[in-house]
Write a structure and sequence with these properties.
The protein is of the alpha/beta class. Helix content is about 50%, strand content about 5%. Among the domains are: about 120 residues, DNA Cyclobutane Dipyrimidine Photolyase, subunit A, domain 3 (Orthogonal Bundle); about 110 residues, HUPs (Rossmann fold, 3-Layer(aba) Sandwich). The protein starts with about 25 loop residues before the first helix and ends in a 6-residue tail after the last helix. Bound molecules: flavin-adenine dinucleotide. One of its GO terms (biological process) is response to light stimulus.
Length: about 400
């Protein structure tokens, strides 16, 4: 069942070591970080690629549902880990967190890759409807009936828990593309629909990376023997593709553009705070604290997981600004209420390329028509790191010590 549409699996999802649910509140994320930080040093570097199976992912943090929505920030997570282990022993974990930053910054500077993906996906869905053989293969793969033991177990885990270990995601996507011969766009959309941490940048670009569309001449090929080893003998897949078919045409990577400029919030102006699933700990930031927040509204999410996280963020915002009027889910009526309350701007967290940014485009037009500019707070973390996310990951990786040393608690 899709966690995107119904989220029915969210409450019962089994994640992490002894954790029974994904961290979808700030308190749960902070508790998860505290629990995991002691294991984020050398132990993480050594064991992080072992896939222990559903409910036993104790060598990784399972923090992604919280990081994706910024219930907790990248800065908070890496700071906690560095203070536990020092910078050297935390290297591997920190660099994984920066992979998230890299994908976000890379897509932000190539928005046409997102729109191109959506277009190709629509085309692939149409092709499915006209080809019953293809539809059968797609449905068997999506529902864990391909006949490949590891793949079917991961398809089931994805549907039942909304989570897959990173290494399993790599094997799953590789088998989907190169062994089952299915379009990567359909696989990416299927995963996106079920992951509790579904992220337009990390998901789409990881699938492209596996498919050989990110780095010239490089694709990721799953290997049966390695799968047996990394799953400690749980699986022994047969008949996997022995060759990754690289895209026939030379890969078309658009040149990076300047990130979309955001209208920044003004100080001393009565403001409506709009909460979206892109940034759900705005109340912790000094720049937001210094604004005059007189009303609070939220942009409803499109999964039950988003709903839980948004409700938590709303409760924290109400505590922070007890005198602000809570307007609820944002729409035309709330826009007029904000204007009646004499709000002069809408303040929200920056929405990087993806469905939420797409929804904000229409909302921005409506808001401006009512005389309320929609302004976005950009985290210093992104502003500083994204200029290094224009080429390969190594360019960013080299800058990690410098980025980590920059002072500031406003991230
Ligand atoms: C095909 C495919 C699809 C993916 N789809 C998503 C997605 O939709 N959303 C998402 O957040 N991640 C995605 N990832 C990246 C990665 O698999 C998850 O972030 C990670 O498995 C989350 O588990 P964790 O929190 O236990 O990670 P940990 O190993 O504990 O890492 C800590 C944090 O670092 C970040 N991180 C770790 N590895 C990566 C990575 N390879 N890329 C980007 N960020 C990383 C995550 O925010 C994660 O929470 C995808 C990877 C692949 C190969």
């Amino acid at each position: 069942m899709s966690s995107r549409t119904t989220g029915a699996s969210v409450d019962n999802a089994t994640l992490g070591s002894g954790h029974t649910s994904p961290p979808l509140t700030r308190a749960a994320a902070l508790a998860r970080l505290q629990d995991f930080a002691p294991r984020a040093g050398m132990e993480y570097a050594r064991l992080r690629n072992l896939d222990m199976g559903p409910g036993r992912h104790k060598h990784v943090s399972s923090l992604s549902p919280a990081l994706r929505r910024r219930l907790i920030s990248e800065r908070e997570v890496v700071s906690a880990v560095v203070s536990e282990h020092g910078p050297g022993a935390s290297d591997k974990f920190i660099s994984e967190v920066f992979w998230r930053t890299y994908w976000k910054g890379w897509l932000e500077q190539r928005p046409s890759v997102w729109t191109g993906y959506l277009k190709a996906l629509a085309h692939e869905k149409q092709r499915l409807n006209h080809d019953s053989g293809r539809m059968t293969r797609f449905s068997q793969a999506a529902n864990g009936r391909s006949g490949i033991d590891c793949f079917d177990a991961w398809a089931t885990e994805l549907q039942e828990t909304g989570y897959l270990h990173n290494w399993a995601r790599m094997q799953f996507s590789s088998i989907w593309i190169f062994t089952l011969g299915l379009p990567w766009e359909l696989g990416a959309a299927h995963m996106f629909a079920h992951l509790v941490d579904a992220d337009p940048a990390a998901n789409t670009l990881s699938w492209r990376w596996v498919a050989g569309l990110h780095t010239k001449g490089k694709a990721y090929l799953a290997d049966g023997e390695r799968i047996r080893a990394m799953t400690q003998g749980r699986f022994s897949p047969q008949g996997l593709a022995r060759r990754a078919l690289l895209p026939a045409e030379s890969i078309d990577i658009p040149a990076p553009s300047t990130p979309r400029p955001a209208a920044l919030p003004k100080k001393g102006v009565s403001s409506l705070l709009l909460l979206t699933a892109e940034d759900l700990s705005l109340e912790t930031l000094p720049q937001i604290d210094s604004l005059s927040i007189d009303a609070i509204a939220l942009l409803p999410g499109d999964s039950e997981a988003d709903g839980i996280a948004l409700a938590d963020a709303l409760a924290r915002a109400r505590q922070k600004w007890p005198d602000a009027q809570v307007l609820g889910a944002f729409g035309a009526h709330e826009l007029r209420s904000a204007r009646d309350l004499r709000c002069r701007q809408i303040v929200t967290g920056f929405a990087p390329v993806g469905p939420i940014a797409d929804r904000l485009i229409a909302l921005r037009v409506d808001a401006e028509r009512e005389g309320l500019p929609l302004t976005e707070h950009q985290r210093v973390w992104d502003v500083e790191a994204w200029p290094y996310c224009r080429k390969g990951f190594f360019t960013l990786k080299e800058k990690i010590p410098m980025l980590m040393s920059l002072s500031g608690d406003q991230r």
